[in-house]
Design a protein that fits this description.
The structure holds 2 protein chains of 2 kinds. Chain A is of the alpha+beta class. Chain A is built from 37 helices and 13 strands. The N and C termini of chain A lie far apart (82 Å). Mean pLDDT of chain A is 67; it is low at 544-550, 555-675, 798-805 and 856-922. Chain B is an alpha+beta fold. The chains are: A alpha+beta, B alpha+beta. Chains A and B meet through α2, α4, α6, α9 and α11 of A and β2, α2, α4, β5 and α7 of B. Chain A: One of its GO terms (cellular component) is endomembrane system. Chain A: This is Adaptor related protein complex 1 subunit beta 1. Chain A: It is found in: Endomembrane system.
Chain lengths: 922, 408
């Protein structure tokens, strides 16, 4: 059997051996049964008798063995017989049998959950938590946690101070594995106040010096979570921080695989609380024979910890790494030097000189990587380090990777006026134009145009050459478009062209690869587990079949609220709003981002802003529906988090308001404003647009789409001459009338404008689908922003297929059919977009179950094929009357998904944005 | 399993991560010589726990049948199944203490029949009870215990002789042959403890001990140590398992005595020649002897020939390892030794520069480089009538090199 041969034919003979007295033989027979019972369920019944008998054997080892084996046989008929012996064993006098039986309940639950509940095993299991034997307690906890995980709604492990106390006592006595189970379970508990949190922390801290690193990591998890509840000026908070550092460092002397797990977790911890490890930089220095995955992780953490104090050390190390053998590692090291320069301004100079040293080594990939990095440094500190350009130019010929070539070309174009032979350099690139990758081609095109604008006289020929190459001989639409834009720009109005092309670029921000705060908080709750290794929420890699509970850090208690520093506020407060509701990811995210938006984030790159806009749209759906008909209460920051006790009431209220919404809508069908309107969101913060703040939303009223804008002048001067234009988008949205602001906008004045839209503009697929790039012009400057429009504004009135469900009709979503399957109501919905795309959706509503599911079984067109991933997205019950919104929410979510944009992509996408502006009428 | 085999084991490039996710299934793997141990899950499990478990499993297997090799695994298939059955239940690790396991999983399998009922219940209570690592009723005629303080010094030094990072990771290994259920108390010259005591007594003792005490950055203990007691009073008390076990691990970074200094000197003479001179200095009491000294000086890949002159020991160029290996059997403290080598290089047109791996060193010294000293180890056995004085105790200090590297 163990060598892979099928020996199931011997089944009856083997079963006959079961009654032997020889323990070893018995074990082997049981092993055989576990393997083959499934293939021969009828015969397996024969074994049941012996099992039952064995469960009453005087030898506890045999009793336990029998129970254990029975749990592993996944045959329905056997399971039925299992219940009685199991019940007995759960109450066995011998702890060894009890602890085995506890795990067996979890096994049984996996086979047949209903049976476990019916037989009342869960209650028995709960009783076992107060067992006298620590190992039994640990196994009972482990089993309950596993069962609770598959039932997110049920309150199986209802922990209270008494049971927590018991667990903490057991913690001191049980084996290392048991300690892990208990600590993991403790991490799910939310203490009532900071005093309780502190006392738990005090009792958990000794675990930090356990030899088993899993115990240590689980303890760290509990502490990290509960620390959230302690106020920062408490003495204990400081000592706790101090106590956390040494164990984390010790984890690094474990075996490499564990080091990797530890490092991934430290990476999270460093992002959450950099103060813990800020003095421990040295331990993250890479050793020569570390495995590559450990090296890369260490490097990552080093960059995060880099600060003015330790930058010299770090740089010296990084330089050392840059001469190593592994190409990937070297590249990352070089990149890290650049990141240091951007992060610690004082060190920029030294970083640049280090990079130059590296370029001198002439190792091909080092040089290339260094050039890419230097480009970023130029962006961060413009006009500061041009002196190095000469050195860079020397290495022009050795560059063969597109990214490095593009970076080099960008540098040449940007500093064209300072490089005497810029035209020659660019010309040399131009020779092989068609063999280059698109990235290089685009960059080259832009660089030459820049050059032309700076030195118009000498480079006329060059520009014409490149424009013709880009527009006539190229198959790439991006390249062609950009070429045409420049061409037209240059031929009509060179001055405007200069303003657009040579416009000042936004500075790049320093920390671009941080994990999103919500995700980070969630991951902190998963320290030690796979989620923290992948840096993904569990839902991203666990089979969808099981409901996954979203965990969130506990809010700070009211007493400490006042002392909380602004940076932790967004982390703590919003999750407090709905601690017991299972928040969909989007909602929570929206909440958080809304808080972030309050004070506009200091100059984030544009791509990030658009993400935030999307999130706010979502928030519109989520928050609004939660609040129902109390719109006065809007605004995350002012919304005082109700204590846990008040939550059910809150939930009830939202249910009620959801219902009343339903009535509202039904009565509102006949009236004009049928469609749901997303609340206005800030699209363009004043800081980014020289004082012009634009917020707005999209509406659909009797067949026409309009964009409601609110323009606020926060500058000191009067604004006039407003104009607006859209970039091409997926549905061809375009303004149907010019933007009409009649009077000049004086400082601190706000106007509201409704701009009618049509859908006859040119079409280009955007990513995400509903992304819209908008340019607004006034007498001061031209501003660009992008936003996501809710898809339901595109749902047209004639999208109706058959029977009408008045509920959704208000949003132009129509019911095709209603069916009742397995006590679930299935609604089949249809809707049609303005460009004629039909979307069919299946809405599954289960009575008594707060969540319901939207599924898009058959995407009407390939264009919407990307919708499929959102199948099975759980939604809040209160969203029910607004299915249109939630559908849209799902769509909007698709665009950016749960993962955050990649660093490098991010940085590189920026210049390309700056290069593709839309021309505005003057 | 097949997917894992194809994607990880037979993957061309180096392993990029010990955790791989293939088709929503996560594989954890640990490699022991040429055996891969893999754990599989579809859920969000505790990754640290999985790896710890894999290591423990290796330990248990080693304890049962020695080295983990293909042949051993084939020969002990049944035993492994039996062990797995006991240490893991439905994915929950249960008990991985070899001592306890050996009481009821025996290689002969005959013993189980002769067990009386009492023995059986004793086994179960031991397995599940608080002190899972020691059984009752152990008797020795001579009560003995051995204490080994094993330290490994890790050092990373720059070519200029500047210490980039240095730390000592030490282990206290105890071998106990004690009767009954003895309660032990262990003390060492830990700074915090001594300062605490120093406050109570006169200032003079505080000063005197302050010099000898060391600051331990962090320590971890065997599960038999009562952690809560350590946290509150910093005293290490425990009931030891029978036989050999690792009592504690610790780590220090301050005031480390570096037993050796390595001073490299590399000179490139033209394109085809390289001159290397390495001096090592021992830095400890002249009365002590260091043993098994080995210095490994890496050479470039395109080395064609090496001439070595050394004052002491033997040196050889090993082409297969791309290094000059210099061995010295014994060396007293405060001495100096030197090697010089001329390396002939083949001319290559490879533009890539030689990465210059660091010079590494191995040695063994009979003292603890961190300065750790065992102050006392007391044994109390309430039931049997032997006292602390009757126990014969042995203490030994060994300092070894960990990763002891000097960049050149």
């Amino acid at each position: 059997m163990t060598v892979g041969k099928d020996v199931s034919a011997l089944f009856p003979d083997v079963v006959n051996c079961m009654q032997t007295d020889n323990l070893e033989l018995k074990k082997l027979v049981y092993l055989y049964l576990m393997n083959y019972a499934k293939s021969q369920p009828d015969m397996a019944i024969m074994a049941v008798n012996t099992f039952v008998k064995d469960c009453e054997d005087p030898n506890p080892l045999i009793r336990a063995l029998a129970v254990r084996t029975m749990g592993c046989i996944r045959v329905d008929k056997i399971t039925e017989y299992l219940c009685e012996p199991l019940r007995k064993c759960l109450k066995d006098e011998d702890p060894y049998v009890r602890k085995t039986a506890a795990v067996c309940v979890a096994k049984l639950h996996d086979i047949n959950a209903q049976l476990v509940e019916d037989q009342g095993f869960l209650d028995t299991l709960k009783d076992l938590i107060s067992d006298s034997n620590p190992m039994v307690v640990a196994n009972a906890v482990a089993a309950l946690s596993e069962i609770a995980e598959s039932h997110p709604s049920s309150n199986l492990l209802d922990l209270n101070p008494q049971s927590i106390n018991k667990l903490l006592t057991a913690l001191n006595e049980c084996t290392e594995w048991g300690q892990i189970f208990i600590l993991d379970c403790l991490a799910n508990y939310t203490p009532k106040d900071d005093r309780e949190a502190q006392s738990i922390c005090e009792r958990v801290t000794p675990r930090l010096s356990h030899a088993n690193s899993a115990v240590v990591l689980s303890a760290v998890k509990v502490l990290m979570k509960f620390m959230e509840m302690l106020s920062k000026d408490l003495d204990y908070y400081g000592t706790l921080l101090k106590k956390l550092a040494p164990p984390l460092v010790t984890l690094l002397s474990a075996e490499p695989e564990l080091q990797y797990v530890a490092l991934r977790n430290i990476n999270l911890i460093v992002q959450k609380r950099p103060e813990i490890l800020k003095h421990e930089m040295k331990v993250f220095f890479v050793k020569y024979n570390d495995p590559i995955y450990v090296k890369l992780e260490k490097l990552d953490i080093m960059i995060r910890l880099a600060s003015q104090a330790n930058i010299a050390q770090v740089l010296a190390e990084l330089k050392e790494y840059a001469t190593e053998v592994d190409v990937d590692f070297v590249r990352k090291a070089v990149r890290a030097i650049g990141r240091c320069a951007i992060k610690v301004e004082q060190s920029a100079e030294r970083c640049v000189s280090t990079l130059l040293d590296l370029i001198q080594t002439k190792v091909n990939y080092v040089v290339q990587e260094a050039i890419v990095v230097i480009k970023d440094i130029f962006r961060k500190y413009p006009n500061k380090y041009e002196s190095v350009i000469a050195t860079l130019c020397e290495n022009l010929d050795s560059l063969d990777e597109p990214e490095a070539r593009a970076a080099m070309i960008w540098i040449v174009g940007e500093y064209a006026e300072r490089i005497d032979n810029a035209d020659e350099l660019l010309e040399s690139f131009l020779e092989g134009f068609h063999d280059e990758s698109t990235q290089v081609q685009l960059q080259l095109l832009t660089a030459i145009v820049k050059l032309f604008l700076k030195k118009p006289t000498e480079t006329q020929e060059l520009v014409q050459q490149v424009l013709s190459l880009a527009t006539q001989d190229s198959d790439n639409p991006d390249l062609r478009d950009r070429g045409y834009i420049y061409w037209r720009l240059l031929s009509t109005d060179p001055v405007a062209a200069k303003e657009v092309v040579l416009a000042e670029k936004p500075l790049i921000s320093e920390e671009t690869d941080l994990i999103e705060p919500t995700l980070l908080d969630e991951l902190i709750c998963y320290i030690g587990t796979l989620a923290s290794v992948y840096h993904k929420p569990p839902s991203a890699f666990v089979e969808g079949g099981r409901g996954v509970v979203h965990k969130s850090l506990p809010p700070r208690t009211a007493s400490s609220e006042s002392t909380e520093s602004p940076e932790t506020a967004p982390a703590g407060a919003p999750s407090g709003e709905q601690p017991d509701v299972i928040p969909t990811q989007g909602d929570l995210l929206g909440d958080l981002l809304n808080l972030d938006l309050g004070p506009p984030v200091s100059g984030p790159p544009l791509a990030t802003t658009s993400v935030q806009m999307g999130a706010v749209d979502l928030l519109g759906g989520g928050l609004d529906s939660l609040m129902g008909d109390e719109p006065e209460g809007i605004g995350g920051p002012n919304f005082v988090a109700p204590p846990a006790a008040a939550v059910p009431a809150n939930l009830g209220a939202s249910m009620g308001s959801g219902l009343s919404d339903l009535f509202d809508l039904t009565s509102g069908v006949g009236t004009l404003s049928g469609s749901y309107v997303v609340p206005k969101a800030v699209w363009l913060p004043a800081m980014k647009a020289k004082g012009l703040e634009i917020s707005g939303t999209f509406t659909r009223q009797v067949g026409s789409i309009s964009m409601d804008l609110q323009l606020t002048n926060k500058a000191l001067q009067v604004m006039t001459d407003f104009a607006i234009q859209f970039n091409r988008n997926s549905f061809g949205l375009a303004p149907a009338a010019p933007l009409q602001v009649h009077a000049p906008l004086s400082p601190n004045q706000t106007v509201e404008i409704s701009l009618p839209l049509n859908t006859v503009g040119s079409v280009m697929k955007m990513e995400p689908l509903n992304n819209l790039q908008v340019a607004v012009k006034n007498n001061i400057d031209v501003f660009y922003f992008s936003t996501l429009y809710p898809l339901h504004i595109l749902f047209v009135e004639d999208g109706k297929m058959e029977a009408v469900s008045s509920r959704l009709q208000g949003s132009n979503i129509f019911t095709v059919a209603k069916r009742n399957v397995e006590a679930q109501d299935m609604l089949y919905q249809s809707l049609k977009l303005t460009n004629g795309i039909w979307v069919l959706a299946e809405l599954r509503i289960q009575p008594g179950n707060p969540s319901f599911t939207v599924r898009l079984p058959a995407p009407a067109l390939p264009a919407l094929g990307c919708l499929l991933p959102c199948a099975g997205q759980p939604l809040l019950p209160s969203l029910l009357p607004r299915a249109g919104v939630s559908l849209m929410g799902a769509l909007a979510q698709l665009g950016w998904g749960p993962s955050e944009p990649d660093v490098n992509e991010h940085q590189n996408s920026e210049p390309s944005f700056q290069l593709s502006p839309i021309r505005l009428p003057r | 399993v097949d997917a894992f085999r194809v994607n990880v084991i037979h993957a061309r490039q180096q392993v990029r991560s010990p955790v791989t996710n293939i088709a929503r299934t996560s594989f954890f793997h640990v490699k022991r010589s040429n055996i891969w141990l893999a754990a599989v899950t579809k859920q969000n499990v505790n990754a640290a726990m999985v790896f710890e478990f894999l290591y423990k499993m290796c330990d248990v297997m080693t304890a049962y049948f020695g080295k983990i090799s293909e042949e051993n695994i084939k020969n002990n298939f049944v035993l492994i199944y039996e062990l797995l059955d006991e240490i893991l239940d439905f994915g929950y690790p249960q008990n991985s203490e070899t001592g306890a396991l050996k009481t009821f999983i025996t290689q002969q399998g005959i013993k189980s029949q002769h067990q009386t009922k009492e023995e059986q219940s004793q086994i179960t209570s031991q397995v599940t009870g608080q002190i899972g690592w020691r059984r009752e009723g152990i008797k020795y005629r001579r009560n003995e215990l051995f204490l080994d303080v094993l330290e490994s010094v890790n050092l990373l030094m720059s070519p200029q002789g500047q210490v980039l990072s240095a730390h000592v990771s030490g282990r206290v290994v105890m071998k106990s042959y004690l009767s009954g259920m003895p309660e032990c108390k262990f003390g060492m010259n830990d700074k915090i403890v001594i300062e605490k005591q120093g406050k109570g007594t006169a200032d003079e003792t505080g000063k005197r001990s302050g010099k000898q005490s060391i600051a331990i950055d962090d320590c971890t203990f065997h599960q038999c140590v009562r952690l809560s007691k350590f946290d509150s009073e910093r005293s290490i008390s425990f009931i030891p398992p029978d036989g050999e076990f690792e009592l504690m691990r610790y780590r220090t970074t301050k005031d480390i005595i570096l037993p050796f200094r390595v001073i490299p000197l590399v000179r490139e003479v033209g394109r085809t020649k390289l001159e290397v001179k390495v001096v090592i200095k021992s830095n400890f009491k002249p009365s002590l002897l260091a043993q098994k000294i080995e210095v490994r000086i890496p050479t470039p890949l395109n080395t064609s020939g090496v001439q070595v002159i050394c004052m002491k020991g033997k040196a050889k160029y090993k082409a297969s390892e791309n290094a000059i290996v210099w061995k010295i059997k014994r060396m007293a403290g405060m001495k100096e030794s030197q090697i010089s080598a001329e390396i002939e290089l083949l001319p290559t047109n490879d533009k890539k520069k030689w990465a210059r791996p660091p010079i590494s060193m191995n040695f063994e010294v009979p003292f603890a480089p961190s300065g750790l000293k065992v102050r006392y180890l007391k044994v109390f056995e309430p039931k049997l009538n032997y006292s602390d004085h009757d126990v014969i105790k042995w203490v030994r200090y060994i300092g070894r090199s960990g990763i002891y590297e000097t960049r050149c």
